[in-house]
Amino acid sequence: MKKKILAAITVMAFITPCHAQSDSTISAMKQQKKVLELNTELTKTEIEYQKAVDKTIDLEKEAAEANANANVSRPVGYSTQNAAETAQYAKERVKMLKKVKKANAKLACSRKKVQKLDKKKKAIKAKLAKMDHRVEVVNQ
Known about the structure:
By secondary structure, the protein is mainly alpha-helical. The protein has helices at 2-72, 83-139.
């Protein structure tokens, strides 16, 4: 009976440290998994951010061109004597201004998207920095 109790205590003494070591290994692996997931998310966000920046640059060029055309092309043919021609100039001007408004709206939307992605990227980097700090503390 005493031998069985002594054997059980000995086995428990060996199993407990192994189990504790296993738990710390598992938690370290879970931590590494989270870091890898965050790195993947960061990479995807950076790719999406770069695409949005490129699109914004294209939209800036388009909006600048539309604004320049609207500023330069001021109809000088307004007269009370030729109402049909004046109406045509007014229609063209309205069409041009709608194009400018649409281009500027797209540009504003694109800039907002870039800002959101930049904010998301910074948040992920902050999480990664926290994770790295925790991993360093655990490993020491």
